[in-house]
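Technical note accompanying the year-one report. For the benefit of new consortium partners, we illustrate the data format agreed upon in the data management plan: each record pairs a sequence with a structure-token string. No post-processing was applied to the example shown here.
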Amino acid sequence: MGLQVDYNCYSGGYMGFMRFREWLAQIVGLPDLRSMEGFQDFNPKEKGHLWDEYRYDPVCLLLDHSDCEGELTLEECKRLLPRLRQISVALDTLYLVPKLSNNEDLLDQWIEGLASAIEDESGVTFH
């Protein structure tokens, strides 16, 4: 079964989506995603992190999203897409070898899917 996100942004297992988001958080310099508010290891008394500290980065729209329901609105997609493109370009300049994991492919898939949704003046829904 797994997770489906409109415009082919993502189609796969929940664990794969979690690993992708953990990788993305690491790439942009955020704390371990599992220590963030709303995730399994969150403890505000011990190294727990609140999302409010990081809302300045549009990538949080994806990282702090439910993995089984809800949507990213058109406006949220418009904020997220340029940030994902920026991350992709940065990765391309860092890597002198072929892609090392499918996370880079998933990033490209999100970029393509969000671009299509925006072109259609639509958001994307998580199913």
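Partners are asked to follow this layout when depositing records. Residues 3-125 form one domain.
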